[in-house]
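Recap from last week: sequence in, structure out.
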Amino acid sequence: MNSLRYTILDRYVLTELAGPFGFGLGAFTLIFAATEILNVGKLVSSEHAPLWAALLVFVWSLPAYVVLVIPMALLLGTLLAIQRLASDSEITAMKAAGVTFSRIVAPLLAVGIVMSFATLYLQEQLVPYANDQLVEIESAVINHTSAYGRDLTVSAPLPGGGRQLTTATAFEPNSRALLHVTLIQYDSHNRPRQIVFADRAEFTVDKWLLQDSSLYRFNPDGSVLAEPPIPQQEVEIGENPTDLVKRIKNDDPDSMSRAQIAAIVRTGQLTESELRKYVMTYQEKLARPFACFVFILIAVPFGLRAVRSGGSSTSLGFGLSLAIVFVYYIVMTVCSFFGEAFLSVAWLWAWMPNLLFTAIGLARLRQAAAV
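Predicted structure tokens:
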């Protein structure tokens, strides 16, 4: 139990990690946010957006980049920390004092686990909120449009077979109303049975109410029968306003939380290709943050190897970290492709990069501890 207590050794190792980690976090964030910095100037000069709005766009875009670069910064920080300790023979001195190599790197691995959960929290709580704010500012302040002003399509099954296709040109969140609504009902043989036009469809309690709708029926003989205008009628569309808002505001699953992705998948409004993308992203969003632990695990033996090969500079660590990240994301892209193709085991493909790099890291760490 004494080996698990926080000691001066742990504080010393973590202090060595803190500086390089902060440097890596700032450097990688700046690299990824460079396009957003240029975007601020473009918004102000070309699109005549208020400076405060352009700066808010930049600020609200940062959380997504920070979540992406935290594992990279930990990788670089661990490489530089291990290089510094090894190059000054401090790791050798610790071993001579009876401290095992596993105990030396234990605080680094603990940080990897803690930061994995911290990154997961930021990804699920802060990033979706920041993306919502980003959409609102870009739409309302800069583009002077509504974030909900886009074509909407909802497909729902009908009792007894067939389906109903509902389209609208926009959604008003305050009044919870669809604008310029068209409903087309198809029979079980995919033949149109009737079509309804309405200027608005308002949601009250648990029903949609069409206002001043016009209905046209298609007879089996090919004739069309126009019904008298109906001031108000109840219809089932297949989605409530909450589901609509989630789907039309967040049409990119990478910008959503896992809870939002799950809610949209449950609506049944996704095409097969969209469903595959959403399900795979749902699984990847749980696996990605744990790259923090994986990168620290694999950085320790690589940091020792860099010292033994005669290099200990920051530039070497930076280049090595970029190479590891590049290979990791290539593997992740390939696994994502297979995960979408084999959806029943998408969870396994989402975790495959972490499993592969963990195996490599453990093998190399065992070799380093034996030296």
